[in-house]
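Dear all,

This email documents one entry for the complex benchmark we are building for the journal club exercise. For each entry we list the sequence lines for every component of the assembly. Then comes the predicted three-dimensional structure of the complex as a token string, followed by one or two observations. Please use this as the template for your own entries, and keep the labels exactly as they appear.
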Amino acid sequence: MSMNGAESLVRSLLASEVEVCFTNPGTSEMHFVAALDHVEGMRCVLALHENVATGAADGYYRMKGRPACTLLHLGPGLANGLSNLHNAKKAGSGVVNIVGEHAETHVALEAPLYSDIEGIARPVSGWVHTSHSAADVGADAATAVAEARRAPGQVATLVLPSDTAWNEGGVVAEPQPVPAPEGVSEAAAAEAAALLDGPQTLLLLGQGAVGAENLELAGRIAAKTGCHLLSEWSNAVMERGAGRVMVNRVPYPIDQALELLAPYRNIVLLGAREPIGFFAYPGKPARLTPEGANLYTLADRSRDLDQALAALCAAAGATEVPPAHVAEAHLPEVPEGPMGPDTFAPVLARAIPENAIVVDESITTGRAFFPATAGAAPHAWFNNLGGSIGYSMPCAVGAAIACPDRKVLALTGDGSAMYTPQALWSMARENLNICVVIWANRSYRILRGELSGVGVQNPGPRAMDMLSLDRPAIDFAAQAQSMGVEAEAVTEVEQFQEALARGIEKDGPYLIEAIF
Amino acid sequence: MSMNGAESLVRSLLASEVEVCFTNPGTSEMHFVAALDHVEGMRCVLALHENVATGAADGYYRMKGRPACTLLHLGPGLANGLSNLHNAKKAGSGVVNIVGEHAETHVALEAPLYSDIEGIARPVSGWVHTSHSAADVGADAATAVAEARRAPGQVATLVLPSDTAWNEGGVVAEPQPVPAPEGVSEAAAAEAAALLDGPQTLLLLGQGAVGAENLELAGRIAAKTGCHLLSEWSNAVMERGAGRVMVNRVPYPIDQALELLAPYRNIVLLGAREPIGFFAYPGKPARLTPEGANLYTLADRSRDLDQALAALCAAAGATEVPPAHVAEAHLPEVPEGPMGPDTFAPVLARAIPENAIVVDESITTGRAFFPATAGAAPHAWFNNLGGSIGYSMPCAVGAAIACPDRKVLALTGDGSAMYTPQALWSMARENLNICVVIWANRSYRILRGELSGVGVQNPGPRAMDMLSLDRPAIDFAAQAQSMGVEAEAVTEVEQFQEALARGIEKDGPYLIEAIF
């Protein structure tokens, strides 16, 4: 069968089980767009900004465990999606990141839209490649998918010059084998188990090791050895709620983190990195573990973490031990009080429906949410691992497309929400089952804390003005409605509870602006 | 006087006449934010997305001729602003692009927000440097300003680790000399003049050579030699309108461009590049000039173009010749007819107030605007030189801050407007004198043309869906109001005229959604 490069791309992606394309295409991608008509099976989701497309690909991978692709327009389109690719990279999310390029003869002329696409892609990508002919496109696409799936997942950027799309000679490629992650040895597991046996020991779990089954094994190990359990501050997907082993996170505020980690003399890292501060602060250590602590990396995140946890559990002799720290079903009472983190937390805990996916970018407002929701209905919880704000609404789009039968709750600060408001339009267009809650404190509240954290005393009005979003206040409900999403603003706790019930009930997107 | 690096930064920038900072700061920039309190003289403009900040810096330079600075948060903040830096690079706009970085000890630990900042910056920057101590910051800032001003202007990226900000030992630097652009020789000018002497000759003017005085010289040369005049498709700032020498642009549609350029046997390039297609198209040439044409580059855009034009004028013996093609004051009648490009053009021509700055990102809708506005009141006209959409509203912010006494008209397609809606909030916050017009055709109309331009026949529903913005339609007026900007939607020509009069009259931002 004769076909052009564009068609071979779509058929090869489908053969490798890539079935969703988050895109904002341009002229150089028009043949790929056309190929999507000829070939059945690829769901195309249009985004009005590339950072929505790339963030959605991140969220999709977190739930589906295999990648979606993007289709972005040249270097500037890639640049627009770069910060959520940064977040995806840090989350270990696999993304087949397809970027159109000028035909090679045109690149040489430095056209207005010419830029160094590979150069822009490299800082966020684990793999970067440019196809050089229509005949290569299919095989390159299959390789990109396999590379995107390399554990734990990575951004694989494939650059496709437009002539590789329109020229004939495309060849559909078979799926490439996905590189299998290595496990850990019995000896290493035994060494780690010995380190955990006793007081003042910690098993620190990283992403990829905080699914429900992972946590159950960790709970058995804790019950047997007496070790404590923690996860990193940010997790791609943690499965939690009633009936699951409850694990707290290393806190973000550096003083709290230092205090919490101070007692541990033996720390086993399983999928986790050595804990460090999110930022550097003058006169404070970057490493959060106490001097002299014994850190043992049983498995970094590129390993087979399911196998590593099972091996550790076996080495500890805990396979048959009932797990510790299983969360009981518990819905905290909503206290009297004004709108704020302390009332939002129990409202949330009571509202989270079974199997919900919570995409959390609540920043300062959300610091109290984790303990309060530990006994809520079982759910998945996403954090932002790269720290670039504007991830939650796009990531929710991808999660909702991956799991159409589950409710997605996107929780976001107002500052973060303003980074990627275009995600709301895609939610409306695809009628996605997402309830967005915006915590409208009308400031970059976190930076007010950071200002004193880095040692700035008595900031003046010009500094404070750079951290304020109240001049003018943003009407988030109106903004959502302008993009076709039903929305309301609430200023009282009871009103918030009712709005949340409506948003969760609704089959489609809903936005609540919680003003406090 | 003892000061930290952050304070030396602000004082050194001010000493080099950098007086405006477009910013979205984060933790790693908090000391710089604090320094803005201690030091008088720097106007700080907060943007809710970095692409607003970088686009504003572009617009500011276009009008002011000297750079503003940005202050961006780490690699992701830079990434968010990258596509408008790409546009600034292509426009030859000078930007002192300041990016915070982790303290050096923290970079080594690969913190969540760590990324290769220099790697991200390099594709859009003419100069990239990282400071290594507080003592270096002042001098590095002065060098960055001088580099940003290197003709015609370039993006100079200075990366400042947070410890260089908070450590003591800052030193205020004197301004560095700006590298002077070279002129052209008398012999070269004479050669060019000889080439233009006669029929079928063209003087092609690039940016930096389309100010009012440049155009007057070009008009004299045309009158004397008989050469034709054209500018490139995109110009950073063209000064035009009644009383000025009128110059058309090389058209965007490739067939029109090929036809227009076909007759010329001698073409002199002055600040312009050899004309090429915006995109490559199968079976069409990339170079727009006819084979065998004699192209002579008198001066590329890094030269002193004022001197080059004067030398060419003198060599042609045209210094005292009255210029050709001077536009007469002419306000076209508004024809009967529906909303659309043909009625918008005369409405605009009649409405443009004297000294207005038109920031044009009208894409398909605007192709008829240029001839129709040739006899309008004198005004400046900006194009997007990098082709990355979402430039107009941010660029308008910068132009309005550079020229508070002039009206700014930001004309934008709906697809483009959705890239940087956050600019509206900064317009409201700073009460900027900007009237935004959104051409709401509810599609990526240009791509519908491009689809057939690249040879795709009979696109199916999935392809067309990727080019449509009508599901759901976006309420741009409501969106603007949600960010504090007064706005209205219009659907009739007369209504549009009245709205435009209101928007131009208003002292502050106003948005008109023109639905057609």
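Observations: The radius of gyration of chain B is 24 Å. Residues 120 and 490 of chain B are 42 Å apart (CA to CA).
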